[in-house]
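Can't attach files on this board, so I'm pasting raw text. These are the components:
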Amino acid sequence: MTAPLSRMDRLQIAVARGLKQAGQGLSEMVGRPIRISAPVVELVPTEDVAIRAGGPEQVVVGIYLGVTGQVTGHVLLIFPSAAARRLAGMLWEGPVTEDDLPLTGEDVSALAEAGNVTTSFFFNHLSDDSGLIIAPTAPTVVEDMLGAVLDGVLAELSLYGDQALLTQTIFSGPSGDLTGQLIFLPHLSTLQTLMEALREEA
Amino acid sequence: MNDHHTVAVGLGELALGTGAQDLLVCYGLGSCIGIAAYDPVARLAALAHVVLPDSSLSHGPDKNAKFADKAVPALLTALTARGAAASRLVAKIAGGAQMLNTSPLASRLDIGARNAEAVKAALAQAGVRLAAEDIGGNYGRTLRLFTGTGRVQVSTIGRGEKDL
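---
Top answer:
Structure tokens for the assembled complex are below.
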């Protein structure tokens, strides 16, 4: 007899499956295999999220989408600047923008589309597993210090509680040149709904 | 700058410079605001990292500099306890940007602008002179406060750096 799964275990399993789908979605887009690390799913103090994601002073490209439906919150894909430029170049099949130049319009569109596809795969899977309606909003692409990219999101999250459920995974291309992370930060009030729904479905 | 003892001031935190070689830093301010306060006579400096405008938004025990209305009094208390005088304090602030300006989050609540407004109101109420500000826009800022001199430097990605 196996021990019953905790709510957190079930969430972790659903998230891991969803992220695998997200990786496949991204992989199909770029035409290369994308590896997804075992995700971290844990409650952390809201103020610590940027530190856990690599440090507030790191320069990154963030692709932000709101999360709407029966589960709400935020989701971000975060890449180091060089990796974001390589990914964008692969996606729109154009030259890779130099690191010291701003992202081009084509880069931004391509990265926004990567955000759409990756998070749609992720939330479709979570929807299937839970029977809940969960969908990302239109993406916003910004390049700046990680702290600046995240602090408005963290401020908004802290209106719901002083802790955040940090769901974080690292994905990487075959030669490690597309390493980035996906961070899903649901509002704690709707996390309960998701956990309950996953219990019924499991 | 390598000779300085760097102290990172995280979200909702407040730090007091304890030596002339201290460098207090708020890294990557987006909608958050760094409030640097300095007493040039007592040569005392402190830095607060404000996240939200008003403590009525609080959910329980919070760090004392998380909300603008609490951060300014906390800053004053920390400095005057060491011998600074409120009347001599000079404040400089940076941050309050709107980073994700096309997202539903931004249209629902422009936290950056509200933070800026609340910080200025709190400084005015406390009678602290606001000497300089670098506020708004849609880009991040790192604020460095050199405690020995009160010098405040703001740096950005791709938009250079300047002294406030």
